[in-house]
User: Fold this.
Amino acid sequence: MQTTILGIESSCDDTSAAILRDGAVLSNLVAGQEAHKLYGGVVPEVASRAHQVHIVPVVDAALKKAGVGLEELSAVAFTRGPGLAGSLIVGVSFAKALALSLDIPLVEVNHMQAHVLAHFAEPPYPAFPFLCLTVSGGHTQIVRVKDPLNMEVLGHTLDDAAGEAFDKTGKLLGLDYPAGPLIDKLARQGTPRFPFPRPQIPGLDFSFSGLKTAILYFLRQALEKDPEFIRNNLADICASVQQIIVNTLMDKLEKAAAETGIREIAVAGGVSANSGLRSAVESAGKRLGWNTYIPKLEYCTDNAGMIAVAGYYKYLKGEFSGQDVGPLVRWSV
Ligand code: KG4
Ligand code: ZN
Assistant:
């Protein structure tokens, strides 16, 4: 018998649905929310209402694209957390109602675990144990992955996430939200000539809030002397910011690889779309003899494909949730 999983993701501002059959992704659709650009960040209330509008059409479209009928579903997998309460509740309620009406199992998924398991949406797959640097708008962590459902956090951010560092710097520079992709594009045309301080945090933890403050003071001073400073130096500022963030991530990743002796190295989450980070991982891989894995872009940013993959592993182990399950705003892997 085939196993067909519907995955639902609604932890932040993207509503997504995916169909996975026997481990292969048949469809993976995302409805984004442009409205947050107006506010320079995700507004929880706006996100929650948009999820309510998008969830039924997105699930419908994912089923149609996969050519799968509701009666063929084996289980519904959904993001239980971590994420925004008002966003999570929409996906959780939808998944519960659908599983109940179809009388099929309900499978709760940890969003951060799913970012890591996005590496199993398509081959080549990392071999166990591997290290995964998960870098997104909400999270930055390095985990040791012993098997699909057994992960250990080796280091995490003490304040802002790497994506947040990109987005908040972008706001200071007058760039639209989310600024990460724009900074990446501008950085390619610039030279990293501004020496922003590298965060000095012991062990494998990260901190990015000091960098944001340093950039704020640097820009204030520069703008006093030259009101056109940002406009005249935008590409170089972006290249400098990107270099510091990428170097900080790479320092810790190399340290984790050296300390654990693991050479299977994966990167996941929205920031893994960054061209500077991608090339830094590849060149460290060549230098240090790593096998490196970065998923296709559609599996890097928030998507239900990764939720369905994680749900599939749990389904095979019979790890189901009851109808009393609710969202978990905070939930470690
Ligand atoms: O994983 P994701 O889609 O959502 C969260 O779970 O947060 O990640 C979104 C984050 C945003 O902060 C965005 O600015 C960042 O990923 N991002 C990038 C790039 N593409 C997306 N950051 C730097 N360079 C990029 N090319
Ligand atoms: Zn995410």
